[in-house]
Amino acid sequence: MNKCPVCLKRFDELTTSHFIIVEDKIIPFCSEGCKHDYRPGKKLYSAAVKHLSTTAVIGTFRNIKAHYQIYSLGVISLLVIFNLFNSHALSESKTKSVYFHEFTTFSLSNNLQISLVKKPEKLDEPKSGLVYYYDKSVSILEEVLTEKIETDLQLQVLELLLLKNNSQALQKLQEVMKKGNELIRRRAAVILARHGSKKALRFLRRGLKSNRSSISSLSAFALGRLGDRKSQPHLKQLIGYRPTRFHAATSALYIDFPPARRYLLDLTKTSSRYGDRIRAASVLALSGEKQVKDLLLEALEKQIFEFAAAEGLAALGEKKAVPVLQKALRHDCLRIKAAKQLVKLGMTRSYKIVLDDLDSKFKSSRLSAAAAVFILVSEEVRKNKKYLNSDFTHG
Asked: What is the spatial distance between Cα 73 and Cα 23, in angstroms, rounded to a whole number?
């Protein structure tokens, strides 16, 4: 889990697509709004106050200077603490006797008769179940550590293992970045860069200068998505070519390049191909653009390109995407993306849908199921940590 440098909210860096690069450091954010509000070198408490001052709770303080906002927050905090202490003291002073969970009979007569039925406590998933599925998914994922890395699925698995600070996964990715085909090398470098490797970032930046257009293009796409403004001249050029226009514009969204956003918005309205309209709308939604929501809801209702629509809607917090994403968990090639979006919507219990595939005889199905279970159960564990063993931790 990461902490957003603007609002200080904890979030899963695996499910975010909002980054910027300052010199050689990649900074992830919980949302597009926080990314936009970030100012390099600005103190954390100032950024946090600015973020909080835009919320409904202290929205009336918007026009007050920053240091007055801090004083106001301090006073409010003291009042809250005082009230909590007061209410706690009052509750302690009351007579402690029977707690009436539920009345089933109440009879007023000479003899008061009260019949009580105690409601059973509602417990979440037994801790042994969560831990078992977590450990089983990790065990399956770790099989990749002894294999030759040749597929994108294997790379995604290595990234998940990085989240639990697996040193072998880090070493494996570093080896892949040094040798192999260009596409796999660059994808490994993106994963390493996203997790703070300056060496991987320099590797991607060197690729921008390559005489081979395929290498320079892949590097530009990757750096743009990581928020590296050094990729802007290259992406601007690639937007000018029809074969690379869409991918270049998609990457340029993440470095706040206005022509890219305008091109994609125009595509959602004017393209004669409905699929291109939905694809552009989904990409925009993943970057935080809300004005495409109606188009995505329309596609979801029509059940046309519904996964792309659901992915975009999930990024906008739309619960209507849940059934489609849960259905996508049953498909090997979609389940990892679906799991990430379900985490954003708080539907972590969806891991139960893919449990059977943990024992699949097909390797790709088993691996992708383990990846989805890991993503969903890790978040479920975090939410229900009071039910877990004290020595249980997750990446």
From this structure: 33
